[in-house]
Amino acid sequence: MDADQHLPHSVAILWRGDAAARRDATPQNSRFVRVFEALAASGIEARPAVYDESFADAVRDQLLSVDGVLVWVDPIHQGKTRAALDPLLREIAMQGPWVSAHPDVILKMGVKDVLYRTRHLGWGADTHRYDGSESFHSEFPSRLQSAGTRVLKQNRGNGGQGVWKVEALPHAGGMVRVLHAQRGSQPEEMPLATFMVRCEPYFGWGGCIIDQAFQPRLPEGMIRCYMSGKKVAGFGHQLIKALIPPPPEGPDSPEAQPGPRIMHGPDAPSFQALRTSMENEWTPQMMKTLDIAEGSLPVIWDADFLYGPPDASGADTYVLCEINASSCFAIPDAAPAAIALTVMARLQP
């Protein structure tokens, strides 16, 4: 090789799996095949990196051999957390490779606490935080009675785990109706004190519980705004069933299943007001509030919105209900190319 030639940039795409999945993984048989293809088209060599705690040392060696690491690992997966992975990724980042999303960035924007810390932005709603059992037990019961139906969220989780709709039952002496957001859940009625004890474990790994007002327009669907860095990479609209009581046929009936997520490109006419707010106002304001530099924003993340009450002109408003920064997938057709552009920009000297 000539002295003025150099190898292309290389990145590892990391996801969770067992030893067999690590042995057999290729770009072509991965669910991230379109991301691999977009990176290759941009001149970036991308390598599969399947992770499990049982072979973490081998993964560490692999990650130290590349210029960057793109991580797709849920906070909770089949009973496993990121408690061992996050320190490993911090170690990798300290030794040179760039990591997206860095665990410290996830702790700022990819946890439910972001709803409280950014409640003053245009996407905010009536939101509170309980930092421990004492504040939870002293404040939540009166808030539930005075403010109406609430949604409680553990700080770290995915797939609806630890997200509850809580409704006080009138004239029932402290009884509540609760519904877990996990698929297949049924409404339950119980004393409020009993339910609050059930929530106590959320103060462990997650550290806090976030309390938001329930949004009555939930049945109109959720809008997922996909971002690459600080630019919109597409949208997804889905009629969700989480926190909506199942029909009489039961939680496993077809009527209880969520609708398909309909993907749209960044230029979709229906979402241009949301795009403008995200790119020009809310994302820059979030970065300032959370002290996140542009170069630290994940190469792919999403903000999940519910419709809020119409404004004075009758236009839709949007209420943030979650940011996903740990494992944002599936993604719109336009997103892999956007990811590749962002990765290339991050890897430039």
Describe it:
The radius of gyration is 21 Å and the shape is globular. It has 3 domains: 10-100, 3-Layer(aba) Sandwich (Rossmann fold), CATH 3.40.50.20; 108-124 and 217-332, 2-Layer Sandwich (D-amino Acid Aminotransferase, Chain A, domain 1); 127-213. It has helices at 19-24, 33-41, 56-63, 85-94, 103-109, 113-117, 133-147, 192-199, 272-290, 335-347, and strands at 10-16, 45-51, 68-72, 76-77, 80-81, 98-100, 127-130, 150-154, 163-168, 175-180, 188-191, 209-213, 222-228, 231-238, 262-264, 301-308, 317-324. Helices cover 29% and strands 26% of the residues.
Which features would summarize this protein structure in a list?
3 domains; 6-stranded antiparallel β-sheet; 5-stranded antiparallel β-sheet; alpha+beta; Rossmann fold; globular; 349 residues; D-amino Acid Aminotransferase, Chain A, domain 1; disordered N terminus; single chain
